[in-house]
Amino acid sequence: MIGRILGFYFARRFASAVVLIFLSCVTLIVLVDFLEMARRTADREQVTVGLLALVTLYRAPSFTEQLMPFAVLFGAISTFVLLSRRLELVVARAVGLSVWQFITPPVLVAFLIGVFSTTVFNPVSADFKERANQIEGEIFGSSSSGLLPQGKKEFWVRQQSVDGQSIIQAQATRQGGRALSGVVVFEFDKADRLVERVEARSATLGDGAWILTDARVLVPGLDHQHYDTYLIATNLDPKQIQESLIAPETVSFWQLPAAIRSAEQSGFGAERYRLQLQSLLARPFLLVAMVLIAAVVGLRVFRFGGVGQTILGGVLAGFLLYVGTKLAEDLGDAGFVHPVAAAWFPAVAGILLGVLILLHREDG
Fold it and tell me: Which domain CATH number covers 219?
């Protein structure tokens, strides 16, 4: 009974610390992002404060989703350090609890946070990210210069039509990939020779063709020509376009398996979606690894002192684990590492390392 009461107490303290840190970071990120968006749209009269606030709100979940591991890490460190300094862990040991018993509640809470983040928060984040992309495309894709937000990723798609092969580059997508902004099309004939290059402000997928607006056509050896509307044949349907152009971050966790199957059936690469799916599945275990790293730091403070140095060491270890996770994901995205290994190795390695250190310290 005493162990159960202490377990609920430790779990509540840990959950409160994580929520407090997470909300503080969210507030700071939303404020900074709002100011940055206001700076980039200062010369656009059609952008109102309400529209900026809406875009910031839609962008916030995708940013804060990346903060979850750090919120869990800092929340766990603060919880264990505070329990140590108040000698509450001494009481826990005095009633016969081992280190595994009083870190189990935070571990379970972290795992549940990870499950919630994957199954609930991620779908909301993906939906909001898609809406933000749509509004940003309307804002930044409305000028002839095609100016887009800094750091915006480009999207590429290859298609085969009756005229030959085409490669389409788009700066932004809207309407599930059926509307593009900042479009450049490279058209090749059936002998794979470049026929023309088309630059357009926007493109919309019609019945068997892309409808380009405000297009400039450049043919080798000839002067460029301007067209208000220009058609490029395509054999792609909206579903294929969506799977080839939409970023994995804008696809919900529950929709990723269908996106993978559709991408494979249509001949497009599905590695990005596989990596995103595996990363979301591994997220609860990554948060558990963060708690174990924090436990190593908290126990060291309790037994040996040196609060500042050990906290710094724990933060550095958590940061290195997070960087390793991102590095593995980049390698997986580039095709150098299998998506399963890229997504799961950092989390599993962090858990094993934390358990090994705790076993060495507590059980010799």
Answer: 2.60.450.10
